[in-house]
Amino acid sequence: MVDYKVTSTVFGERPSFKEPRKILQELGRSGFEDMMDRFYDIVVESDIANFFPQDKAILDKVKKHNTKFFVEACGGEKEYSNEMGNVDMVEMHKPFSIPEKARVEWLGCMKELLEELNVSDVAKQEFWDYCEMFSKHMVNKPTDLESHMKLTDHR
C-alpha cells in the first residue's frame, strides 16, 4: 500500500530527496512517456491548469520536454541535460507564482495518476516520495500567513 502523505513546505527550505529508479525500470521508456502524457492530461483539467498551455500543440511540446526531465531524474538517458545544460529548476520556475496550494494540487494530480498505474507499490512509493520532496523546491510564494508574519516580525 502506498502512503501518499503530503508534508508541509517550509518556505525557502530545500529538502534533500532521493531520485527514483524503479518506475522507469518497470514501465520502460514508452510506458513512462505514456504515464507522463496522462499526468499532464490530468493537470490541465485541475485547479492549476492556468500554469500550463491550453493549446494542444504547445502542451504536447511541454509534455515531451518535461518527460525528458523526469526520465533523467528516474535514471534514464540524459536527454534533458544534453539539450538544456545544467538547469536550476528553482530559477526556471521563478516566473510562475507557485504557492503551497498549487504544489498540493500538483501532488493530487500525481496521486490520481499513480493510483491508475499498473506498477509495484514500491515503484509508486519511491516516485511519490521523490515528487513530494522535489515539489517543495518549486514553492516560491509564501502563504499569506508567512507573509504576514514576516511583516509583523519587523515591527
Can you tell me about this structure?
The protein is 59% helix and 0% strand. It is mainly α. It has a single domain, classed as Globin-like, CATH 1.10.490. The mean pLDDT is 89.
| Backbone CA Rg | 16 Å
Number of strands: 0
Assigned CATH superfamily:
Globins
Categorize the overall geometry: globular
Quick overview of this protein structure:
59% of the residues lie in helices and 0% in strands. By secondary structure, the chain is mostly helical. It has a single domain, classed as Orthogonal Bundle (Globin-like).
Any chance you could write out the topology, listing elements then pairs?
Layout: H1 22-43, H2 56-73, H3 79-84, H4 89-92, H5 100-116, H6 121-134, H7 144-153
Helix pairs in contact: 1-2, 1-5, 5-6
Which terms summarize this structure?
Globin-like; mainly alpha; globular
